């Protein structure tokens, strides 16, 4: 009844109210066991477990809690996790405010058929003074007072040092290390890429989740996280424990923990800024500019977008709109790469002439450069061409959808006619054809297009959206493509929403810039790896064996088991080569030692055919401009190591 009463309070009645009432009433539960099913037991409270509507219905009850508490108390509600906080000059005043709020909350939940649990609750005072004399009670039972508490996956301590949470992060990473130690070794186990995917799934997501509140932790805590990060990555790469932290992170092409801590607050802020009109944290850089979160966002203020279109809640249900006619194929064209350009043009023009001879043709296209995005459409029969520059750089699909949106808007302003809207982006047309599927990065654009298509249809227009192959000489499409490219400088400015793709692209660019800055800083790089691959352009070829992958990483990082390295770690007494009686380094073995002169001559002959650079350690272990040259070079290197028996020793 509490849910149904809450629905009535918010004006939800009629069939919707009856349907939800039917959904909640006359429910029963039973358990399936090896011996059969148990008896059914009626359920009178709560919402169905696992139901799609259940979280929404539960939240409807708790929406009114904030109004009950009033403005002097702050409250955060996430499902059944409720956090209440306040500030005051004295501990007595804090206790009085919290006790009143807890009593109000308990009474409100009791009226809804819910109950607070004192044993599952906790009070946390952000002060070093004792709160033992100022207890807060629920139904006569004292809420335990703690120095730290886990709320929504983040451990909050009274000093806000986040030391407890960092310890938890480290333990999680250590457990991951133990898992992959049993999964792989230097010469056996999954590939490096598979282990890195496991590392991303088990640890990076957990770190990124809590990163927005960790942006101002101390330097030693950051080093602790990066040290734990490097331990896991060393096992993924198959390198020794004493390999440098920064060399390991760079060789794995991983993002350092400090970079995540710097940029994840920006990701959260961009999501709130671009998707919510009202949110407590949306304007936090103005209301609380000195907070750690605000300072982290302000440091990236140059990246904050402007002049984007706000996301709106659809006023017209999508299921009430007529389904658009979208055709994604042309007879005769199965796969573009298998048909010559002339054939594509022939099939497309034949189909257009046969199907759309008596319709008005309108061609839409989009264009994306490194710095901007634009769109355009052209109507050859009417001599009309329009160019549009989008306020921010976005994806090619969003640019194509913008072109379709502007073309649909143009159609809705014309006299009723039969139109064919041609577009060479199949993903854009698929999104329009599947307009009922919400939650994609382009849903707001698709909704705007559907609104315009619906209005045009109601005005008497008939519109068909047809896919055509790109860059095959169709005059209208080539003209639209040229106009879209010119729109980067001369187009009318239009705004679209800032999508998830745009946020990820912006963050990826900012993270890449930060990682490059760290890589070029002598304090945060391994000099040997920087000398071999200063541009971080090296890519490990596919289909290498695990032992080949790990050997290559040890050679690049300078931790292969040469006599000098073994002497350094205390496993060898003499660091010198047994033949030359000079220090046995990786450079000595690969480029100098006469013991391997015959095999080296063969290696040098094969490598010198690829380019004119002198034979060196950098050439053997560094990056190549062409992928095929890199593969041939490494194949020759592994043959050399195998023929000399070095692959088993190093």
The total count of helices amounts to 26
By CATH, the architecture of the largest domain is named 2-Layer Sandwich
Shape: flat
CATH topology of the largest domain: Nucleotidyltransferase, domain 5
The secondary-structure class comes to alpha/beta
Q: Could you give a short account of the major beta sheet?
A: 7 strands, mixed
**Mean pLDDT across all amino acids:** 89
State the helical fraction. 40-55%
InterPro entries: DNA/RNA_pol_sf (IPR043502), RNaseH-like_sf (IPR012337), RNaseH_domain (IPR002156), RNaseH_sf (IPR036397), RT_dom (IPR000477)
GO cellular component, one term: DNA polymerase complex
Domain Reverse transcriptase: 1-156
Protein name: Putative tick transposon
Commentary on this structure:
By secondary structure, this protein is an alpha/beta fold. It has 4 domains: 2-145, no CATH class; 157-303, no CATH class; 318-497, Ribonuclease H-like superfamily/Ribonuclease H (Nucleotidyltransferase, domain 5); 560-649, no CATH class. 48% of the residues lie in helices and 12% in strands. It is built from 26 helices and 19 strands. The strands form 7 sheets. It has a 7-stranded mixed beta sheet, with helices on both faces. Strands 1-4 form a two-stranded antiparallel sheet. A hairpin with a 2-residue loop joins strand 11 (148-151) and strand 12. Helix 10 crosses helix 12 and helix 10 (257-275) runs antiparallel to helix 18. The longest helix is centred in the first third of the chain and has 21 residues, at 91-111. The radius of gyration is 32 Å and the shape is flat. The relative contact order is 0.06. The mean pLDDT is 89.
């Amino acid at each position: 009844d509490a849910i149904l009463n809450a629905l009535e309070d918010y004006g939800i009645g009629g069939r919707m109210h009856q349907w939800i009432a039917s959904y909640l009433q006359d429910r029963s539960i039973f358990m399936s066991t090896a011996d059969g099913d148990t008896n059914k037991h009626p359920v009178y409270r709560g919402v169905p477990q696992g139901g799609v509507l259940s979280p929404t219905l539960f939240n409807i009850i708790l929406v009114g809690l904030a109004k009950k508490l009033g403005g002097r108390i702050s409250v955060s509600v996430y499902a059944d996790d409720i956090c209440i906080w306040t500030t005051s000059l004295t501990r007595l005043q804090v206790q009085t405010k919290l006790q009143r709020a807890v009593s109000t909350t308990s009474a409100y939940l009791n009226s809804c058929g819910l109950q607070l649990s004192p044993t599952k609750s906790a009070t946390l005072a952000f002060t070093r003074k004792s709160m033992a004399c100022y207890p807060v009670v629920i139904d006569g039972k004292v809420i335990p007072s703690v120095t730290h508490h886990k709320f929504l996956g983040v451990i909050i301590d009274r000093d806000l040092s986040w030391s407890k949470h960092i310890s938890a992060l480290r333990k999680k990473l250590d457990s991951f290390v133990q898992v992959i130690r049993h999964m792989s070794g230097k010469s056996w186990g999954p590939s490096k890429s598979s282990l890195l995917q496991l590392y991303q799934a088990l640890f990076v997501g957990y770190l990124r989740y809590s990163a927005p509140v960790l942006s101002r932790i101390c330097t030693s805590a950051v080093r602790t996280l990066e040290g734990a990060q490097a331990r896991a990555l060393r096992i993924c790469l198959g390198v020794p424990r004493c390999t440098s932290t920064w060399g390991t992170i760079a060789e794995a092409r991983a993002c350092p923990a400090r970079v995540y801590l710097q940029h994840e607050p920006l990701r959260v802020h961009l999501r709130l800024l671009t998707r919510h009109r009202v949110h407590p944290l949306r304007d936090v850089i103005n209301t609380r500019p000195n907070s750690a979160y605000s300072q982290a966002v302000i440091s990236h203020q140059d990246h904050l977008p402007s002049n984007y279109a706000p996301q709106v809640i659809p006023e017209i249900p999508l299921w009430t709109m007529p389904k658009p006619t979208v055709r994604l194929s042309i007879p005769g064209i199965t796969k573009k790469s298998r048909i010559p350009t002339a054939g594509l043009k022939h099939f497309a023009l034949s189909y257009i002439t046969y199907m759309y001879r008596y319709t008005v043709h309108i061609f839409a296209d989009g264009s994306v450069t490194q710095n901007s995005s634009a769109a355009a459409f052209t109507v050859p029969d009417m001599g009309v061409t329009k160019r549009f520059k989008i306020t921010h750089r976005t994806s090619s699909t969003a640019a194509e959808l913008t072109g379709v949106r502007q073309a649909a808007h143009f159609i809705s302003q014309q006299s009723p006619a039969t139109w064919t809207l041609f577009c060479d982006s199949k993903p854009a047309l698929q999104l329009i054809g599947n307009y009922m599927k919400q939650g994609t990065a382009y849903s707001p654009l698709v909704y705007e297009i559907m609104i315009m298509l619906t209005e045009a249809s109601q005005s008497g227009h008939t519109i068909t959206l047809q896919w055509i192959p790109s860059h095959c000489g169709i005059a209208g499409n080539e003209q639209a493509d040229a106009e879209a490219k010119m729109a980067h400088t001369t187009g009318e400015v239009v705004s679209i929403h800032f999508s998830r793709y745009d946020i990820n692209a912006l963050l990826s660019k900012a993270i890449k810039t930060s990682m490059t800055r760290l890589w070029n800083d002598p304090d945060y790089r391994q000099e040997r790896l920087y000398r071999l691959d200063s541009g971080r352009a090296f890519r490990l070829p596919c289909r290498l064996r695990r032992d080949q992958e790990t050997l290559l990483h040890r050679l690049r990082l300078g931790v292969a088991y040469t006599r000098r390295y073994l002497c350094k770690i205390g496993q060898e007494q003499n660091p010198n080569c047994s033949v030359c009686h000079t220090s046995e380094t990786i450079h000595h073995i690969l480029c100098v030692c006469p013991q391997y002169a015959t095999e080296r001559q063969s290696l040098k002959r094969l490598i010198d055919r690829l380019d004119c650079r002198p034979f060196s350690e950098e050439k053997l272990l560094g990056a190549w401009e062409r992928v095929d040259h890199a593969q041939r070079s490494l194949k020759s290197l592994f043959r050399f190591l195998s023929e000399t028996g070095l692959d088993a020793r190093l």
